[in-house]
Amino acid sequence: MHIAILQAGRTNPDMPAEFQDYPDMFETLFAAQTGNDSFTFSNVPVIDGVFPESVDDYDGYLITGSAYGVYDDAPFIADLMTFIRNIFAAGKPLVGICFGHQAIAHALGGHAAKFDGGWGIGTMQVQMVGTADWIPAGIERLDLIHVHQDQVTQLPPQAVRLAESDFCKNAAFAIGKQVFSVQGHPEFTPAYTNALINIREDKIGTDRAAVARSSLENPHDGKQVGGWILDFFATHDAAS
């Protein structure tokens, strides 16, 4: 399968040069998965206004995180909302991560907004409350790295909630076998996230930043979720 990574943001320009940009992080995540040789990935920088000419140009799509919110007036966001709806109408499989998660919900009839509870940052645990064909049975909880202020506040009408927490009610959702959407960042590493906390500490707040740094010492399930994403694409491909 040929998957387009729709790049909706870039790493903070103050980050050390050793850290990858978003599309490369995903390719590193997927390279660690068994069975990845049936996938190829291409970066499409939608943040620059670049979009595929047709939804049929690729077999599936993944939307990355972004410093933007779905409510911002950046020129690419309205076009991205339209493209998401076109992907969905065409029956193509679609994954959303962080901003991508919020954008999919927003485009398909849900809602996303800035959360008045502040930043969700660090390794955070969510409870699994739903099932999907690409998620193994019996998983009760998931620890993922998070970096977000915005949240999905209302799911699209067709969506089924897969994960939740006291901090983030809609931490993951699915729409049939076509959409898999997650608020957390399976592609982020503790080292990258710690560097980002250092840069953003004045916005996050000293106390919350300290808690987030401490949480990064805990194991996280990013690699596992990376495998779920590939299994999601493969499940859709087998069913089509």
Give a written overview of the molecule:
- The chain is α/β, with parallel strands linked by helices.
- It has one domain (2-239): Rossmann fold (3-Layer(aba) Sandwich), CATH 3.40.50.
- It is built from 6 helices and 11 strands.
- It has helices spanning 22-31, 75-89, 99-107, 190-204, 206-215, 222-239; strands at residues 2-6, 40-44, 60-63, 94-97, 111-114, 120-128, 141-148, 150-154, 160-164, 172-175, 179-182.
- The strands form 2 sheets. A 9-stranded mixed beta sheet has the order 2-1-3-4-11-10-9-6-7, sandwiched between helices. Strands 5-8 form a two-stranded antiparallel sheet.
- Strand 3 (60-63), helix 2 (75-89) and strand 4 form a beta-alpha-beta unit.
- Helix 2 crosses helix 3 and helix 4 runs antiparallel to helix 5.
- The longest helix is centred in the last third of the chain and has 18 residues, at 222-239.
- The chain is globular and about 50 Å long.
- The chain starts with a strand and ends with a helix.
- The model has no long low-confidence stretch (mean pLDDT 95).
